[in-house]
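Suppose you are handed a protein chain with no further information: no name, no annotation, nothing but its sequence. What can you learn? This example shows the usual starting point.
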Amino acid sequence: MTGSSGIELVYQSHELDSETLLDLGKVEDMAQVTLNDKPLGTVWSAPYRVTIPAGLLKKSDNLLKIEVVNTWHNRLVGDTQPKDKDARKLQWDNGLMGGRSHSAGRYTFSNRPDAGGKLHPAGLIGPVRIQRFESK
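A reasonable first move is to predict its three-dimensional structure. Written in structure tokens, the prediction is:
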């Protein structure tokens, strides 16, 4: 999916009193993480990890939200596919194009990449893990 997508997960926990690490695994391209309505951070490069402060995890009903965004590349490739030709009708209330509707299969307008372009990996690839910090 191009743009933004998210996941919400309610789960049980056994690690309550120590600082822990949330490892998102592989992410394409950026993710914003919230746990129990507390923002944990935004990650945009490997390793895709955020710290969960001690005391934030509850014994039950932990709400983890991960919102992932990626680049426009896949949207641009999708807009050039033949099956999308004339899939939408556009009309501007301000009188642009004489107020007439216009057929368009695109959500974006660009001459690159072409219909044969390859899609990039997108989303939360994972695996997602909660890990204890290692003492040294």
